[in-house]
Design a protein that fits this description.
This protein is an all-beta fold and about 190 residues long. About 0% of the residues lie in helices and about 40% in strands.
């Protein structure tokens, strides 16, 4: 049965994206107010904001969760030309805001020369990889060679497209052996 729920997100500007974790019990929202919020689903069926922090110096376009096998890890992308990777590090003592989760920035990927418009983690069978795309028409694939050290990411592929890119997606099939990109041949 489908039940629609309304929550008061209390962002200070337009919300651009909502992303659920693998189990659907957590969600993240991002906004032009330069922040990301994490929400946990309570036993009572209500969503509670458990983390809220400023993530970028520009509008945050997208937020995405890694597979839980890699921990509680989020990535966000922004108009400020960066991608940030965040890892949950337990609880804080900020009772005045009723927040109890702390997310720590592990890295900032700064290869783009224009707004980064989308970010997605790869399916878990491909390891801890991250795809980004930007306004300048570049798709980048990064990999964390050591999943225990999220401060180190290496650029694996950089694909130039003829047009601006606004979204990127992974093929979740385990039978797909390669990642293919279709480029115009002229």
């Amino acid at each position: 049965m489908f039940v629609a729920r309304e929550i008061s997100a209390d962002h200070k500007d337009l919300i651009h994206d909502v992303s659920y974790d693998f189990h659907g019990r957590r969600m993240a929202t991002c906004s032009s107010d330069q922040s990301v919020k994490v929400w946990d689903l309570g036993e009572d069926g209500e969503w509670r904001c458990t983390a809220n922090w400023k993530t970028h110096s520009g509008s945050v376009w997208k937020v995405t969760w890694a597979h839980p096998e890699f921990g509680q890890v989020l990535a966000s992308c922004s108009f400020d030309r960066t991608v940030a990777v965040w890892e949950e590090q337990g609880k804080t003592c900020s009772s005045s805001y009723m927040l109890d989760r702390l997310f720590v920035k592990r890295t900032s990927l700064v290869d783009s020369r224009t707004s980064v418009t989308d970010v997605k983690f790869a399916p878990r069978h491909l390891g801890l990889q991250l795809a980004t795309c930007s306004k300048d028409g570049t798709v980048r694939i990064y990999e964390a060679p050591d999943v225990m050290n999220l401060s180190q990411w290496s650029l694996q592929h950089e694909i130039q497209c003829k047009l601006s890119c606004s979204c990127v997606s992974w093929n979740p099939s385990r039978s797909a052996e390669q990642l293919y990109f279709n480029k115009d041949i002229n």
